[in-house]
Amino acid sequence: MDFIMCGIIGFWNIEKQAFPVIIDSLKKLEYRGYDSFGLAVLSESGSLNIEKQVGKVSETKCNEVSGKIGIGHTRWATHGKVTEKNTHPHIDCSRKIAVVHNGIIENFQELRNELLRTHKFFSETDTEVIPHLIEDEIREGFSLKQAVINTGKKLKGRNAFVVLHADTEEIIAFRNGSPLIVGLKKINGFSEIFIASDIQAFLHETKEVMYLDDDQIVIIKEKPEFYDINTNEKIEKRLIKIDIDFSPVTKGDYAHFMLKEIMDQKQTLMKAINQNDRELMHVAEEINNSRGVFFIGCGTAARVCHTAEYVFSSIADKHVNFVPASEFGNYKHFLLPETLVIAISQSGETADVLEALKIAKEKGSKVISIVNVQESSVSKISDYVFHINAGPEKAVASTKATTSQIAVVILLAYACSGMLREGDRLLVDLAAKVNDMLNPRYSEHIKNIAEKIYQKENMFIIGRGVNYPMALESAIKIMEVSYIHAQGFGGGELKHGPIALIEEGTPVIVLVSNDVSRDEIISNAIEVKSRGAKIIGIAPENNEAFDYWIKTPDTSEISSSIVNLIPVQLLAYYLGILRGHNVDYPRSLAKSVTVK
Ligand code: M6R
Q1: Under 8 Å between Cβ of 544 and 420
Q2: Which of 136, 184, 213, 431 pairs with 313 at a CA distance of 20 to 30 A?
């Protein structure tokens, strides 16, 4: 099955060529996938001009196609090869219907097998069933609008797709699960209309938007018309003006976004803790009065959720649960209207998080979110939102958003304990220490250590307490950027099995904090050192167990999660560089994972 995660754009106007507009928007959507891209434009003669390319839209040349109405797509595939024929748009047998799609058609095999009796398929994708289904509906006498609705209703799973038909001068989009937003621009009295997976695709053109909701379609032609797919009734939408700064983000003097974003942490912690005290206290009260709190997130954000268990236990004497968003469905029996679900997400678009929040909402539980991207799908469905204000995070590997999320979690825990002032002071102090820490000498020292170990194929990271989830996060960072196999463990766990993997020279990173766990984690370091490991100690003080020492500021145990993670982010960066990888866009990944 071809699971597709991607960015979609549609552009309608009567004045200018669609090609450059679509290409520009696809570049903005690249964070959703950068394996391949394609577009279909309606030509003057009423045929579809289609172009597809394997590679990143920002780095790959694409033949220009002529026409004023068009759709485009940038793809990330986990199943089904990255080939031109699997690249969107996909078409029907008559080559009149082009479709771009985001989501997973869970019943695609069934639909495809049925369609194969009468249709010829050109790709291995699940998406391709859509144009063929529409083709059948039209053959049966339905209008394009009805054919799109009927087809959308046949698809199982979370999907959004946009259709361009050669015989009509309209674009039709269907949404059930994956986001789609319409952007409107009036220029010299003429309309320009955009439809995209994310406002970022057209924010450089217009800030006026209308949201397409689930179970709705929009027909784009001169002006957008929205319909409910179940009642077929027309829906009036409010025009919303988005108040977001969309100035282009650059790397500045840095070679990569990842390095810039690591360095941004000199300021981002202060921005993260600049939250409204009244809202913090209000949410703290909700947490204190709740029956069960679940922190949910994916990947790195899941590690932050895991950290929350330690943070709340230590600061607020409160038990909160962490569940990876993709596993949250298994916990739905515990959800009550008094349960709080706290979602952590940089993008606010992660499909597993959205799915988990849907479950929470169905159960009547309140949803709080900690997000970076404003106007994201997660923020829109949350009862309360804390924006971490880290600014755009472009590199696929999350760095500044992670530490900002931890800072907000710490602040919330202090609010719950009735000590918000103390929490604030502690975090201001921490931000100053991080600012001092991130200097060129520090980076150089870490780069030198990276030079000693970059050729290794296995690495381990250990930590205790709050540094246990940070060890897990460190492993994610190293793996995704350097492609070195890295695993994180609780310090006490190594001797129960993984220690068998330690060989002469295996790098083991030890995350130390100056608290009761210090002696224990040092003992764990010595255990692996005796078996040949090379120890990289990340700690406020040096220790004879360390082969290399990366000094961190002496902070509280909880704050050590932040100061210990930052040097690992730098180490991961340099390991990736030394191994010759594109650290901003690692292979097989996307910034925002918009499929389950
Ligand atoms: O946008 P989100 O925070 O919801 O993304 C969650 C994960 O996909 C993300 O943290 C991923 O693990 C990063 N590549 C890690 O650096």
Answers
A1: no
A2: 431
Residue of 400, 529, 591, 596 with catalytic role: 591
Q: How much distance in Å is there from the Cα of 344 to the middle of ligand 1? A: 10
Question: What is the domain range of residue 329?
Answer: 249-437
Residue with the two structure tokens 């025009």: 239
Question: Could you identify the residue written with the tokens 């979609």?
Answer: 8
Domain boundary among 241, 274, 306: 241
Q: Which residues line ligand 1 (CB under 6 A)?
A: 298-301, 345-347, 350, 353, 396-398, 476, 480, 589, 592-593
Of the three residues 437, 455, 484, the one that is the final residue of a domain is: 437
Q: What share of the chain is helix, strand, coil (3-state, %, to 5)?
A: 40, 25, 40
Q: What is the pTM of this model?
A: 0.82
Angle at 118 between CA 136 and CA 145, to 5 degrees: 10
Q: Read off the amino acid at residue 380.
A: K
What are the tens digits of pLDDT across the range 124-159?
A: 999 999 999 999 999 999 999 999 999 999 999 889
Judge whether residue 102 has pLDDT over 70. yes
Q: How far is the CA of 469 from the centre of ligand 1 (A)?
A: 15
Buried b (16+ CB within 10 A) or exposed e, 334-344: ebeeebbbbbb
- Closest ligand 1 atom to residue 399 Cα is 16
Tens of pLDDT, residue by residue over 62-92, are: 899 999 999 999 988 756 688 999 999 999 9
Ligand 1 atom nearest residue 346's Cα: 3
Residues near 266 by beta carbon (within 8 Å), at least 6 away in sequence: 434, 435, 438
Could you tell me if 191 and 266 lie in one domain? Answer: no
* pLDDT reading at 228 higher than 50: yes
Residue 563 has pLDDT above 70, yes or no: yes
Q: How far apart are CA 453 and CA 60, in angstroms?
A: 34
Structural domains counted in the chain: 3
Strand 223-228 and strand 216-221: pairing?
antiparallel
Please check whether residue 466 is in contact with residue 314, taking contact to mean a CB–CB distance below 8 angstroms. Answer: yes
Question: Which of 178-182, 461-465, 480-484, 536-540 has the lowest average pLDDT?
Answer: 178-182
Residue 298 bears catalytic tag: no
Where does 232-274 show beta strands of DSSP type E? 234-235, 240-241
Residues 394 and 508 in one domain: no
φ/ψ of residue 576, rounded to 5 = -60, -45
Same domain? 253 vs 300: yes
What's the 263 CA to ligand 1 centre distance in angstroms? Answer: 19
